[in-house]
Amino acid sequence: MSKKKTPSKKAAPSKGSAKAKSVAKKPVKAASKPASKKLQPKKAAPKPAAKPAKKAPKPAKPAPKAAKKPVPAKKAPAPVKKAAPPAKKAATPAAKAPPPAKKEAKPAPQPAAKSLPKPVPTAKVPAPKPVVAAAAPAPQTAPAPVAEAPAPAPAPPPKPEPVKSAAKSSAPAPGPTKSGALFYDSHMHTPLCKHAWGEPEEYAQQAIKAGLKGIIFTCHAPMPNGFWPTVRMSESEFDTYVALVQRAAAAYKGKLHVCLGIESEWFPGYEDYIRQLHERVEFDYVLGAVHWQAKEYLAKFESGTIENFRRIYFDHLAKSAETGLYDCLAHPDLVKNYHPDSWCFAIIKNSVAASLDRIAATGVAMELNTSGLNKSYSEMNPGNEMLRMMADRKIPIVIGSDAHRAQRVGEHFVTALNNLTEAGYEQVSYFQKRQRIDLKISDVLASLKKAADHNA
Fold first, then answer.
1. What is the value of pTM for the model shown?
2. Which of 186, 418, 419, 447 is buried deepest, with most CB atoms within 10 A?
3. Would you place residue 56 in the very low, low, confident or very high pLDDT band (cuts 50, 70, 90)?
């Protein structure tokens, strides 16, 4: 309140003498007192001009006299250049003298007083601290459930994550790549099966040379109770298998689509174990297989004549499809390698036809396995006659090399596609996320030639 009295006392000499010089000098001294020992006399210059405007509207007439004198006008901008922000504030009150003067006077003391209490509660009150902590642990809350998830099922939760990261590598569209590659080899192995050689990356490199768009690893699945352990990964190696495929997928990302599959054994009484195995990770492809060579299989079902044993095999092939556990059935006439010298398809043709009828009703696909040319009975699995029977029933067909060595990836695929055409097939398939994708055989043949030329 003392500040307001001082300008009122000095307004009296302004009435006695209207000289601008005396008025300009006196407010400088008065303003220097309230100012905080800084360059406020320069800021105070506009304040007296605004205050007499309130109490004495008559000085509006002497205003032009001050305007005529350019000296104060020139002195005013000089300090404005040194303090640019106040100059802008002073310019605005010139048009609206009373309102800005009040606004400038009020915020100056008020925020100074209010700004102090605001930081004080933030430091003292623990409320803001938990807010910051809540933002930080946000990423930590995600791993927290991961640690808790293993409680109900320790094996399943951590295992899907690495597989999904490999699978989530945006599966290419069914169309061809820039090189023209279009098709997949849907059957190959890793050294974990104990009878294959070469790292997954070697298989991937050979697939590019063969003009393929992708490959699906289908190593022999583990089985419980020591079932035929010499030809499959152990249960403790399952995570290692997933990691091997993931590693190859990362190494060839953008060059070749590497997918995770499994060649899953079928044996009566093991269905529950197999079902749980398939749910442990996200497979692109599950290939069912009945292996008559297993000691356990021979011990249980090898009885009677050779033909009777083969009929049992084809019945089991149909049963495996009827379980709904598999996307496709591997090397469907593999049993012809059981005493291959006595193989005669005509003898068991009716049994095969009955089995194919049951398989066709399930919608499960069947494989044309090119590795049959390397077995004791040198013919693809299945042979051409059985292939025609499958085509008549419109059973979907998938091609796999069953490669146990890298150089056999994509081997004999052109021959296999030609055999399919002769058998009456027009389409060939592969699987992604356990969903079948069909392609025209003519397009696949053209893509293999184009991609092979491109990679040559």
1. 0.64
2. 186
3. very low
